[in-house]
Amino acid sequence: MNYSTSQFKNGMKLMLDGNPCSIVNNEIVKPGKGQAFNRVKFKDLITGKTLEKTFKSGESLEAADVMELEMQYLYSDGEKWHFMDPGSFEQFDLGEESMGTALNYLVEQDNCIVTLWNNNPISVSPPNHVTLEVIDTDPGLKGDTAGTGGKPATLNTGVVVQVPLFVAIGDRVKVDTRTNEYTGRA
Amino acid sequence: MPNFKEKLIRYQYLIRNIRDFFYSHNVVEVVTPSLLVAPTTDVYIDSIEVSVNHALSKSSKFYLHTSPELEMKRLLSKGSGDIFQICQVFRDNEHGHINSNEFTMLEFYRVGFDMHQLIDDIKALLISLGNDDPVKEISYAQAFYDYAEIDILNSDFEGLKNILESHGLNSDYEWIEDIQMVLFVHLIEPKLKTIPVCFIYDFPKQQAALAQIDGLVAHRFEMYIKGTEIANGYQEIQTSKEYRDRFETELGKRKSLSKSIGSLDEDFLDDLKVGLPSCSGVAIGIDRLFTSLSL
Fold first, then answer.
1. Same domain, A101 and A139
2. Residue range A150-174, pLDDT digits in tens
3. What are phi and psi of A27, to 5 degrees?
4. Which one of A14, A43, A62 terminates a domain?
5. Residues in chain B closer than 8 A to A34 (CB atoms)
6. What is the torsion angle, in degrees rounded to the nearest 10, for the CA atoms of residue B238, residue B241, residue B242 and residue B247?
7. pTM for the whole thing?
């Protein structure tokens, strides 16, 4: 199935140079003395890279068979990360290179979005906010409840996040996975 | 809705300030017909056809003007001197979020001005409208050197096709000017988004439109505001024969694209036989100017 430039819209998944891509931005440019073009920004769903292409209006691209499914993260055996579709109980696994930043935030049993291309998993997005446990940080300063300063803390997934001084080992904290920022105590 | 009314009033001031600028420079305001006997010959602009009824149930075809250019040039050839016009223009088959089938155009001509003098005049107009953003002026060729390391004037059709392919773009284009344009849209325009006001001048001769050709370039310019095309101007060709040649070339291209072809406006070509005075003219999209400048 093909989509013509007139059907392009943000989020549409299309095949570009052999890789599935998602439209991030679609701009129609009609020079006063020229024909109309679509200047399109894509995200390559495999490499994560952004690329720009310009098409003559009326050109078309093949649709990419891409699905985003909510799955449960089961476990990692060190080489592969295993997920399960709770609807079908079907299991999928991904290598480290496809895990991206999800590695930093997922703990077993967490739900996340797994992207499938032709029914093969290609990437994982963690929820925007996760709750993790502090396993290592310098002792806090007593009385600093305003959270004016900051210090690094290692969380149970291994990721290091800047936290206020009052946060102590064993605390559960909320982290925004898009910015890797502490947003509060759980 | 105070914001809505405030916007209407800001628009009113824009129009009034434009008029003030031209009145104070002794540029005469004119009104020309918008119902024309011939459609535009522009390859990529389509006229809207209308049917006009006469007495005795006779009807005839007319075309809404896509710009007041030819009618204003008839006035220039009759000795009007400097003239301007603010009018609605109409175009068929337009699409895109900043394109419309009807929009407001400011068109003006300055007799005895070359292209650079006209650019200076537009800069003075922008200042009189309250815009004092810095203005960049760069030739089409220099923009391609600076932003894309491409020698656009000395690259042939095959060379430009290879460049398109190296950027992973479709190279299925009819003419060299189409490739120049897609490269401009793809590589140059995005760089102009950070520039408040940018004049691009001396277009490749293949994109001359109705501008004078000088070697590899035509004395044609465009003005971009933050990457959006706002104005298109020429140092104008002057003889009836040149107009006929340019129109016929364009009709030939329309034909090979299987687009509608109208007859030439012979009345215009007749009027132009006395010659157009040496002049430069420009069309400015008022709606886009209003939004881009947030005047």
1. no
2. 899 999 999 999 999 889 999 999 9
3. -120, 125
4. A62
5. 44, 177-178, 181, 185
6. 120
7. 0.86
